[in-house]
Give the backbone structure.
Amino acid sequence: MTHSIGPAGRMAQIFINSKLTPVVIIAGILLGIASVIALPREEEPQIIVPMVDIFVQMPGASSKEVEQRVTSPMEKLLWEVPGVEYIYTTSSPGMSMAIVRFYVGENEEDAIVRLQSKLMANYDRIPCMVTPPPDQAAIY
C-alpha cells in the first residue's frame, strides 16, 4: 500500500532533504536581528494622554444621593465631550470625583476648554446643594 503525499508534503520533503534549509533559517534570524537593531526607538517616548480630574462637593449628602444627583448626570454629560476615551467616577459622602481621560494625541488645552465649556453650558442643571465652583472651575 503506497501513500502519495500532497503538495504540502512534497514541499516539506524538499526542505527536509535540502542543504540550503539551515542557510535560509540562519539568514532569517540574522535579518530579524538586523531589523531590531536598525529600528529607531526612544527609551522614554513622550506620549501625551490628556487627563482631567473634576471634584464636586455636596456637603451633607450621602454617597448614594451624591451618585444619583451629581455623579451619574455629570458622567452622562462628560461622555458628550468630543475626544473622551474613558471616564472613571466615584461618589463618597459629600463629594463626587470624575477622572476624564482623552484619546492619545488630543491637544490638552483644547480638551480642557471643551470639557469646561460643556460643564459651564449645563451649569443650570447642578443641584442647589452643590458648592458653586470658584471663578476657575475645579478642573485640574
Remarks:
- Strands lie at 51-57, 84-92, 95-102.
- The mean pLDDT is 87.
- DSSP finds four helices and three strands in the chain.
